[in-house]
Structure formats: C-alpha cells, structure tokens
Amino acid sequence: MSDSSTPAVDEQAPTRTRDSMPRATTWNRLGEIPHLGLIIALVLLAVVGLVTVPGTFATASNLVSVLSLAATIGVITVGATFVIIGGGIDLSVGAVMALASVWATTLATQSFGPFVMIICALLVGTGAGLVNGLLISYGRMVPFIATLAMLVAARGLAQRMSDRKTQLIQQGNQVIVDMSTTRVLGLPVLVYIFAVVVVLGWLLLNRTTFGRRTYAVGGNPEAARLAGIDVRRHTVLLYALSGLCCGIAAVLIMARTTTGSSTHGDLYELDAIAAVIIGGTLLTGGRGTIVGSILGLLIFTVITNLFILNGLNTADQLIAKGLIIVVAVLLQRRSLTSRT
Q1: What is the pLDDT of residues 91-113, one digit of tens each?
Q2: Where are the transmembrane segments (predicted)?
C-alpha cells in the first residue's frame, strides 16, 4: 500500500541544471560594483577638465591643490557620515571648526606652543559636539534645531574672541604650518592626516561594535533600544565624534592658511552634508559608507576646481551644487520606492 501523501514525480518534466539557469549579464555584474556611478561621474569630470583646461587641470600642482582642499572638508565629512548614518544631522560643523581655529590661535594659547594649540582645537571641537549630543539626546531637541543653535552660537563666539580679526600663527609655532608646506612623496602632510582619518573612520564603522550600533540606531532607534543599545549615549558619542573631526579640520585649515578666523568653514556644512548624500548615505539614517562619502566629496571638490580654472562665477558653483543635491535626493527616493 503506497503512501498517498507522497507527491507523484513527473519523469517528463525538465530538470533545471546550472547550464539552463539564466546567466547574469555583463551589465548586471557592473551594477554590483560598489559606488560605480560615483566612480564614473568622477572620471567624466576628469575628462571635462582635460578637455576644457588641458594645460592646467592634470598638472601635479593642481592635483595637490585639489587634495589639500578636500582634506579639510573631508575630515568633517567623515564625522558627518557617522552622524547621518545614526539618524541625525549636524549643521554646526563649519562654525565649530572656525571656533576651534580661533580659540587655538589666541595669543594666550599660542604662548604654550603648537602642541597645546592642537590639543586646544581638538578639545573645543569635541566639547561643542558633546553639547550638541546632550541637547539632542537628553534635552530631546530636534537635531536640526540644536545644531542650528550651535552654528549661530559658535560663529558668534568666534567673532567675539577674535574681535572679527584674523589671528596669525606666530613664528614659534611653525610645526602647524609645516603640515601644509612639508611634502612626503610629493603630497603635503595634511593629506596624509586626512587619509589616516578616513582609514580610521572606515575601520570604526565597518569593523567595530560601535559601527554596527550606529547602523542600528539610525535604522530603527526603538528596535536598537529593545536590543539593549543605549541609544541616547550612542547619539552623544556620534556628535562628539563629529566635533572631534571639526577640531582636526581646524588644525588643517590653520596649517593651510596660517591663521585662525571666525570666517573659516563658511558653508562647509553644505559641502559635507552634500558629499555624504551624494555618496549614498540615507538622510533618514541606517545606510551609508565612508568610501561613498569620500567619493562624493571628491566630486564636489573637482567641480569647484573646474569652476575656478574656467573662471566661472562663485554663484554658479553654488547653483550647480544645489542642483546636484536635489538630484541626489530624488534618486535616493526613487531607489527606496523601487525596493519597496
């Protein structure tokens, strides 16, 4: 007596072998390459530079200039990537960097030497980030409002401390200036500092519990809390990290300009947030990469460089950046809609 629950097998039915399975096309394989679109965009911009200003764009001095400019904003972008992946936003990064540069270049601070100046810049940046994090986590303020308040307050404090004057780095503190003038293998030291920050940021985000918790908090804060993550403390740490990056950026801009000024970092928050968005990080949090953010930053930096080399208006640069941000956000929304 046969078991009636056993399904009958149709011997005539064709079996699906590996050879009969649909093969992935070359286009699909290309689509799986991480950040392919950003790489293509960067290559196209390089081609535009070679065509429009062939005698200037591809020179070693111009490439060093691009990397030096990218280094300062790039360090801030690393911190902004963590904050946005964690579901927040930081509008105060440019003002905090300016405040750190002013505080570190006062006569009182400079009298203690360059290393105290560097430590001062790092502490000021980290402290401002901690204030942001505490207001957001324990004061329950909206990140947009809390960091906007910090933007205004930090810029105002920098103006008061400097009396709206540019503060020059004194001769005895040449170590800071040497970061921009000293070259190793043709590149300034500040570019290597930027590279170290990027590598450390990548390792922290992708190879540590802190990074996994950042994705969890940004993706679903309530689920992260139920999983045992102290969401408020982690948010404070994210903003403190962003502030630390602002302090490092302050040291780099002091090296590049040999000054501390309340005007440093104007609209840097635009460039940093735009680079993060272009790099594929979701504004709602929970998804993003350091590599994508850096590619987005390089795209913006090369665009700025092309505008300068071609003698185009600064206002046109801002218009182009605004359009790029709008397109990037629309593409993000379309991508999310197609996945659901």
Answers
A1: 999 999 999 999 999 999 988 99
A2: 33-51, 63-85, 141-158, 184-205, 236-255, 290-309
